[in-house]
Amino acid sequence: MAAVALNPNGIAAVRPSRKAKRPASRRRLLTARAAGSNEDKPTAQSVLSFLCPLLKAFGGGDAAAPRNRTLEVATSGFASIARLPFGSKVDEACIARPASAAPKERIVLYEFEACPFCRRVREALSQLDLTVEVRPCPKDAVKHRAEVEAMGGKLTFPFLVDPNTDAGKGGMYESEDICRYLYDEYGNGAEFPEGIVSTTVLTGWMPTLLRAGRGMTRYANATTHRERDEPIEPLTLYNYEGNQFARLVREALCELELPYVLFNCGKGSPRRATLTEVAGQGASVPYLVDPNTGRGVGESEEIVAYLFQTYGAANS
Ligand SMILES: N[C@@H](CCC(=O)N[C@@H](CS)C(=O)NCC(=O)O)C(=O)O
Questions:
Q1: Is 304 within the bounds of a domain?
Q2: Can you give the residue range of the structural domain that contains 34?
Q3: Ligand 1 center from residue 46 Cα (angstroms)
Q4: In 10 A of CB 235, how many CB atoms?
Q5: According to the UniProt entry, where is the signal peptide (predicted)?
Q6: Cα of 160 to ligand 1 centre, how many Å?
Q7: Is residue 14 part of a domain?
């Protein structure tokens, strides 16, 4: 299968407007639920607020400290199993999607790794084989949370900005609406996974609990944004949501509040060819490219160590 043509940012080439495909009623719904709607759902927020100190205690304090590798890999593996079959396999319809039907400009997702609602959106992005820029918003974030508040008026995650459409350019809250929007806009006819299993209700909290809240709070010694003179170029992570090793890297990127291009290339993705081009034959997910230092790093353990050494304690 031919590889999708991508620009250097990992975004597929120009696509014509597909608005005509979407029924007017659906467009109205999406517009109504975009940023500014008053649809607060305090329950989930208070659950996470309650769990936050608990998870922090179990998480064991210093995010940069050496970890028990076996435990890390096992808990992340169980987290992936808990969310099967979501976030690993690319939908058939998206494998066949022409490059012209992918987003032209980069979609931006504000999220944090431990949030089950954000995870649901990332799962959809993997299934849809889409690239987005992630601006992590851990608790105590010094930059990205302010951007969300300025754009949307409230601090609720996920928050997605799609500059390619009228419905998306002002920003959207609500994971369910975001997922439906992404399927509607970029699914190439793929069927949205309906039903309670795909939502956060049954297993959505499992990865958060199993990973003891990793990817929830900004690392106190992170040197990103406030402490650096130079602005940070987004890193690129070759990823798919259900990959247990990629999760460990996303957690670190989130805790360091590092912006990154989330280049999804899940099972069946024709975009694996791009990973091979960048990292060589036999390269696997996760793989990280850091344009700030010119480094390309494979193996989750090495990537996490690299990130904390470059943007964490070692520099503070
Ligand atoms: N119904 C919303 C729930 C979103 C939500 O409650 N997100 C939590 C994180 S899990 C949040 O933004 N909490 C505020 C915070 O972390 O500051 C959705 O599905 O997107």
A1: yes
A2: 19-315
A3: 9
A4: 26
A5: none
A6: 13
A7: no
CB 169, CB 163: distance < 8 Å: yes
pLDDT, tens digit (0-9, with 9 covering 90-100), for 3-33: 333 333 333 333 333 433 444 434 444 443 5
Q: Residues lining ligand 1, judged by CB closer than 6 Å? A: 41, 44-45, 48, 115-117, 155-158, 174-176
Q: Over the stretch 198-245, which tens digit does the pLDDT of each residue have?
A: 777 788 889 999 998 899 999 999 998 877 778 899 999 999 999 999
Strands (E) across 140-286 are located at: 159-161, 235-239, 260-264
Q: How confident is the model at residue 153 (pLDDT cuts 50, 70, 90)?
A: very high
Pocket test for ligand 1, best of 110, 111, 117 (most atoms within 8 A of CB): 117
Angle in degrees, CA 8, 312, 143, rounded to 5? 65
- Asked whether residue 221 is assigned to any structural domain, the reply reads yes
Residue 111: inside a domain: yes
Query: Which of 308, 304, 311, 314 is CA-nearest to residue 73?
Result: 304
pTM of the model: 0.85
Tally of domains in the chain: 1
